[in-house]
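TASK: fixed-backbone design
INPUT:
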């Protein structure tokens, strides 16, 4: 932590923002947000400190009674340990005074609240239940991606693609367990519905063991139809291979589309497109970042000013344009966003529900997420559905 410790002392004269957005679209997004904040509040001192080990650093500094004033973290159940320890500020006034509540849908609001109290301001939303596809290859295979009604039915479509084109239907990166866990939760949502998904994340996984097993079985079927080297393929590698036309389909969060828009000759709508993953139509499964504040801050006015700006339409427009995500507010002008993100925002506004992602820590506590990734790592290596289901049920029911 030596690269950041030296900066902490110098930033204490004003409010301190700690985040992990270093390089790429994350850094560009944070720079745009801070530039907008300073233009609105030129008299407020706000120093930002970057740290790639943010969660560990925050926990360490809380224990040392020297927490950052504000930091950026996943909301939802990921914040439960902080709330239980009483170290997060109650930011409800920001929501009521700024009239933000009416501009946020239920999903983002629920990720920010604990027992009726707001402890976070969601900053952006990434959708995880996207199914990207190569338009030309889909036509060649004679398949309509929007016609598939369930994850189980999608298995048959992938087999059809292989027969018709001789190519793999869907690339499946399995090098890191989180990509497989993300696919599993999307399959669970699509095959068994939002009520089962919510019940599983609420600690009632034992009641739904068969659904958990079924989703694992479907993921295993996808793996059987993946490339021979799938166990060694990373997300970045798989995304590049999808761009090169190695598969018709690719399931991933909307962050994958950043590489598509930056690739010459790979145009949205004509070369690549997307639909909700089969069975998840009308659901906007979310990963998001949020701004949270320490209960022990000495810089109340500066912290409140930044929280209000982070939750404002202007702040979210600036941040999300650069981040390649959509604003959690529904009243942000989308005219300067890409066509893909404009369509994502339309889907978000019209969605029936906005489930909180398991894989990205919103739908489960940190210790549960560790156990779930461990279970999936074993499943990837051994493909033992029964054993993996037992481990996952135990993880979900750990409270």
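OUTPUT:
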């Amino acid at each position: 932590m030596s690269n950041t410790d030296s900066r902490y002392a110098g930033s204490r004269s004003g409010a301190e923002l700690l985040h992990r957005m270093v390089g790429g679209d994350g850094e560009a997004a944070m720079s745009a947000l801070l530039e907008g904040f300073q233009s609105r509040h030129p008299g407020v001192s706000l120093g930002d400190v970057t740290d790639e080990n943010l969660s560990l650093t925050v926990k360490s500094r809380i224990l040392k009674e020297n927490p950052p004033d504000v930091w950026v973290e996943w909301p939802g159940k990921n914040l439960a340990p902080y709330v239980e320890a009483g170290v997060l500020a109650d930011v409800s006034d920001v929501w009521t005074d700024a009239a933000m509540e009416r501009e946020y849908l239920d999903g983002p609001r629920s990720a920010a609240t604990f027992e009726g109290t707001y402890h976070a301001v969601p900053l952006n939303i990434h959708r995880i239940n996207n199914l990207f596809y190569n338009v030309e290859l889909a036509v060649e295979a004679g398949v309509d991606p929007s016609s598939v009604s369930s994850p189980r039915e999608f298995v048959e479509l992938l087999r059809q693609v292989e027969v018709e084109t001789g190519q793999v239907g869907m690339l499946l990166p399995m090098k890191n367990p989180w990509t497989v866990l993300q696919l599993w939760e999307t399959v669970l949502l699509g095959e068994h519905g939002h009520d089962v998904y919510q019940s599983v994340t609420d600690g009632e996984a034992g009641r739904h063991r068969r659904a958990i097993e079924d989703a694992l079985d479907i993921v295993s079927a996808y793996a059987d139809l993946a490339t021979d080297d799938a166990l060694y393929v990373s997300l970045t590698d798989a995304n590049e291979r999808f761009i090169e036309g190695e598969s018709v389909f690719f399931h991933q969060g909307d962050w994958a589309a950043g590489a598509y828009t930056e690739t010459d000759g790979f145009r949205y709508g004509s070369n690549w497109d997307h639909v909700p993953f089969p069975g998840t139509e009308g659901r906007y499964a979310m990963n998001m970042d949020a701004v949270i504040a320490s209960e022990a801050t000495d810089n109340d006015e500066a912290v409140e000013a930044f929280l209000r700006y982070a939750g404002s339409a202007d702040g979210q427009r600036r941040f999300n344009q650069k981040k390649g995500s959509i604003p959690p507010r529904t009243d942000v002008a989308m005219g300067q966003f890409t066509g893909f993100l404009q369509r994502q925002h339309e889907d978000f506004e019209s969605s029936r529900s906005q489930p909180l992602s398991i894989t990205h820590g919103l739908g489960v506590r940190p210790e549960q997420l560790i156990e779930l990734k461990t279970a999936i790592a074993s499943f990837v290596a051994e493909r033992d559905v029964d054993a993996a289901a037992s481990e996952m049920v135990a993880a979900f029911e750990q409270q």
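COMMENT: The first strand starts at residue 15 and ends at 19.
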